[in-house]
Amino acid sequence: MAPLLLLCFLQFLLLLGTSSAQAEINITLGSSLTPQGPNTSWLSPSGDFAFGFRPLEGNPSSYLLAVWFNKIPDKTVAWYAKTSSVGEDTPTPVEVPSSSVLRLTAGLLSLRDSSGDEVWSPRVPAVAYARMLDTGDFVLVGADGAKKWETFGDPADTILPTQVLPLGTALSSRLISTDYSNGRFLLAVQRDGNLVMYPIAVPSTHQYDAYWASGTVGNGSQLVFNETGRVYFTLKNGTQINITSAEVSPIGEFFYRATLDPDGMFRQYVYPKSTKTRNLWESQWTLVGSIPQNICNAINNAKGAQAGSGACGFNSYCSFDGTHNQTTKCECPQHYKFFDEKRTYKGCKPDFEPQSCDLDEAAAMAQFEMSSIDRVDWPQSDYEEYSPIDLTECRRLCVIDCFCATAVFHADTRTCWKKKLPLSYGNMAESVQRTVLIKVPRSNNSQSQLSNDSSKWKKDKKYWILGSSILFGSSVLIFTYNDLDKATCGFREVLGSGASGTVYKGQLQDEHATSIAVKKIEKLQQETEKEFMVEVQTIGQTFHKNLVRLLGICNEGTDRLLVYEFMTNGSLNEFLFSDTRPHWSLRVQVALGVARGLLYLHEECSTQIIHCDIKPPNILLDENFVAKIADFGLAKLLRANQTQTNTGIRGTRGYVAPEWFKNIAITSKVDVYSFGVILLELVCCRRNVELEIADEEQSILTYWANDCYRCGRIDLLVEGDDEANFNIKKVERFVAVALWCLQEEPTMRPTMLKVTQMLDGAVQIPTPPDPSSFISSLQ
User: Global pTM?
Assistant: First the structure.
C-alpha cells in the first residue's frame, strides 16, 4: 500500500502545482499592484518575466511601470509605459510615487496616483482578465479569449522573440540608459514599406535625415523577431531581409532581446539562461548583431545631413570601437569639457574665455594658438574657405579671426576651411586625411592645471623662483626628500636610468593618487648641481603638450630630484623596437608630436632651447600615445639675440650631428639632425645602427634609406608593413624630410617649422641633395 499512497500523493502535488501555475497565468478582475508592499509585480508562469513597478536608478522614491527579465540580476527592462500630456506629441515614461495603485477592475486596467487621478491606462473596454506570458508580452484579454491590448503592440525601445512590428510602429531609444524619456533616435516601420533609422531633435519629434534604411519603399511589410532568435524585415512577396541573425542556440537556453540603444545603434543581445550555457558564456548581455555597422560614420554619411549635432553633442566628436560590443564614445577636444558628464549628448564647451573681437592681430597671436587633433573632423559649420593656401597661413587666419574656433587644412588641394561654434557631426576615423586645428589658449598665457590644483596637494608648499630673474611659466611644487621617498616606496620601482641619474615610479598622496616619475640625479656634487639647474631652468620655462611636464622638485641638502608626470606607455625605445610593429598611424602621430615639440623649443618658447640629446629613450608616450620630449639635462638656453652656442660634445651615438665633432658653434640644427634619424626609425621600425644585420649595406639605416630613396625603392624600407605600403606616398614624403634633416652642412637642414610644414604636406618637398655626391665633389 505504501507505493500506492506515495503515487497518489505525488499526483496530488502535481495537481496542486498545476492549479498554482494557472492562478498565476490569469490575473483576475479586482487584482492590484502597488510600488511597495506584498504585490509589486505579476510574474509569467516560468518566472522569466515580470510586469509591475521598478524603482528608478538614482531616484528610489519614483517607480516605472514596466516589463523586465525577472531572473537576471539587473532586471533588464524590456518594456515601459508611456503617456502623452494634453497638447503634447512626445510621450513621456510613466513614473509614479510609492503611493500609486495599478488596478484591474470593471473591465479596465488603470494606474492612479495617491490623489486618485488616472496616470495611465490602455483605455480598452471589456477586459475579462490579464496575463503575463513567458514570451515577455503582457496582455489584456476579453471574455471571448481575444487579445484586447498587449505590450508587444505598444513597444518602447526593445523587441523580444515572437514579437512583430507592423507598418506604422516604431522603437524610440532612451535618452540615456537611466532616463527612459524618448531619446535622440527612432527605428520606424513606415507605412510606405521602408524600415528607417532617424536622429531626433529632442525634446520634439522632429526627424533629421535618415542614417540607415532598408530601401524597401512600397514593398516592406513587417519587422519580425522570430522564435529562433533571428530579426528580419519581411517584404510583401515573402522575401526576408536579415537585420540581425543570431541563431546562437535553442531559444530555451538563452534570453534574447533587440534594443535601439541610446547611441542610435540597434543591437541584438543574448544572455545565458540555462546552467549549461552559463558554463560557456559569461553571465551578461552579449552582443550578437547590430545595425548600422558604425553609427559615427553612418550619421555623417546620411544624405543631406546638415542640421543637428550628429551622433554626439555639439563641439564633441564620435569614436567607434568595433571590437567590443560595437561601442560608441563621445569625446571633447583639448581645452573643452562636457556640459554634463552623464549626458554627453548635450555636447562640450570651451574651458577658457572666448577670444575678444577687440584684439589686434599681434595680441591674438600672443594669446591663442592652433592645436592639431589627429583623425578627427567636423565636416559641418564652414563659414569661409581659402584656396590655394599653406598650413601656416591657415593657422594664422584662424587665430586672428575671433569667430574662428577650428580650421581644417587639406594638403592635397591646399584648401583651408574656417569653422565657428558650435561644431557638429564630429567624427574620429582612420579615413580622415586632413589636418584639423583647434584654437586654444597659448600654453605660456595660462596656468597649468597643476597650478590650479596645487593647493589641494600641499598647502604649505611655495612657488619656486630660480635665481632672481627666471620665473616659471607654471607653478612648480617643492617636495621634501621624505615626500618622494614615501611616494616611490623607498625608490623601489626603476623606470629607467641614464648618464645623469635614475628614474623611479611613484604615486602622490593627493586625492587623485597621481602617478609620477621621479628622477634622482646621482653624480659628484658639482656635476649634480649643474645637471639639476640646467634641467629645472630649461623645462621650468616650458609648457607644451609635446613636452613632459615638470610637476615639482626636491633641492634638499645634497639631494637633487625632479618630479615629472608619469607616461603610461613608456619610451619610444620600447614602443618602436619591441616584437610587435606599432600601427603606421600611431608612428605618424608620434613623428608629428616630436616635430611640434621641437618647433616649440626652437621657435615658440620665450627663450630658445636646444635639447642636444634627442633620441628614442628621451621621447615618452602618454596613455593616448601622444609623444612628449623628456630629459633636458643637456639642454642649452639661448638669449633672444643668440643663434648659436659653443659647448662640448654632447648627445648619443647614432643620433649626434656631425658638427659636434668639429670646432664650430652649435645651433638648433643639431636637434633637426637627431630628429631626422628618429623619423627614419619610425618609418622603418628599426634602430639606426644594427651592425649584426645580415646585409651589411643595411647596417646603417641613414645610409640605406638614402640608397633606397635614390633608387626609387622606398618600398624596401617598409617591406612587410601593409599599412605603410598602403600609405607609400606619405612614407616617401617622410623619408625625403628625414634626408633633408640629415644633411651634413647644418645650414642646409630645414628649420623645425619647415619640417612640420613638409610633414603635414603644406609645402612642396624638393629632392634632398645626395650626401654621397656632395662628398665626391669635394674629393
Answer: 0.57
